[in-house]
């Protein structure tokens, strides 16, 4: 499956149908984008009835590492509202229509935020059609110890675990990127204040030397 971004003020995610039947109808996509200060960006995700939408986001870089998050139903109802959080995970059972989720950085006046989010869409395909496609290839299964349905179930189980592993690795990379940004920011801050402390020490040392030297100077004027 491919995801398209429409060139509008609010981005739209359009899911194209798979070109072939899948073992398990699940879609997984992740994005990283920069949200300027004082801006709000919204995305649209078409969903079908009795499907599942899971969304996880993290603020990777920017002062405060926080952002406002909104998730709205096709009817315009607010399903989720996170105020100034650095990360979040939300899962909703969906109905037919376009779900909108927005990242709001209007409360910040100077700091740009780098945001990572991942979408996991479950039950977006036709289970029954997939099973019918597999049944076309079932011939003489009574001669086999393991039925084709058992093989399909095992493949689905392996695929689900692999997808979960990929998801966890993606999240770990996002956590690593955020921690690296925090460490680099702390490193720059420590270097800055170290230089300030060094400058203060040099100035204090120079003043002390001058004061001590002035104490031992003979200020008496010689008489002629």
TrEMBL record:
Keywords: Endoplasmic reticulum, Membrane, Signal, Transmembrane, Transmembrane helix. Residues 40-121 form the GOLD domain. GO terms for cellular component: endoplasmic reticulum membrane; endoplasmic reticulum-Golgi intermediate compartment membrane; Golgi apparatus. Its main location: endoplasmic reticulum. It is found in: Endoplasmic reticulum membrane; Endoplasmic reticulum-Golgi intermediate compartment membrane; Golgi apparatus, cis-Golgi network membrane; Membrane. InterPro entries: Emp24-like, GOLD_dom, GOLD_dom_sf. It is a single-pass type I membrane protein. It comes from the Eukaryota. Residues 1-21 form the signal peptide. SMART domains: EMP24_GP25L. The chain crosses the membrane at residues 192-212. Belongs to the EMP24/GP25L family. This is TMED5 protein. It comes from Ardeotis kori. The lineage of its organism: Eukaryota, Metazoa, Chordata, Craniata, Vertebrata.
């Amino acid at each position: 499956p491919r995801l398209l971004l429409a060139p509008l003020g609010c981005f739209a995610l359009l899911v194209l149908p798979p070109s072939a039947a899948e073992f398990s109808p699940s879609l997984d996509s992740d994005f990283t984008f920069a949200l300027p200060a004082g801006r709000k960006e919204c995305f649209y995700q078409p969903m079908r009835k009795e499907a599942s939408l899971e969304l996880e986001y993290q603020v990777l870089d920017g002062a405060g590492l926080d952002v406002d998050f909104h998730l709205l139903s096709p009817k315009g109802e607010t399903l989720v509202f996170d105020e100034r959080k650095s990360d979040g995970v939300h899962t909703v059972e969906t109905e037919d229509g376009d779900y909108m989720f927005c990242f709001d950085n209007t409360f910040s006046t100077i700091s740009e935020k780098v945001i990572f989010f991942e979408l996991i869409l479950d039950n977006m395909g036709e289970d029954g059609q997939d099973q019918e496609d597999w049944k076309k290839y079932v011939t003489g299964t009574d001669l086999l110890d393991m039925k084709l349905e058992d093989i399909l179930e095992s493949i689905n189980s392996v695929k689900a675990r692999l997808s979960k592993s990929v998801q966890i690795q993606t999240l770990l990379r996002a956590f690593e990127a955020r921690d690296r940004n925090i460490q680099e920011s702390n490193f720059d801050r420590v270097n800055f204040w170290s230089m300030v402390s060094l400058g203060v020490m040099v100035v204090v040392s120079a003043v002390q030397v001058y004061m001590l030297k002035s104490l031992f100077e003979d200020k008496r004027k010689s008489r002629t």
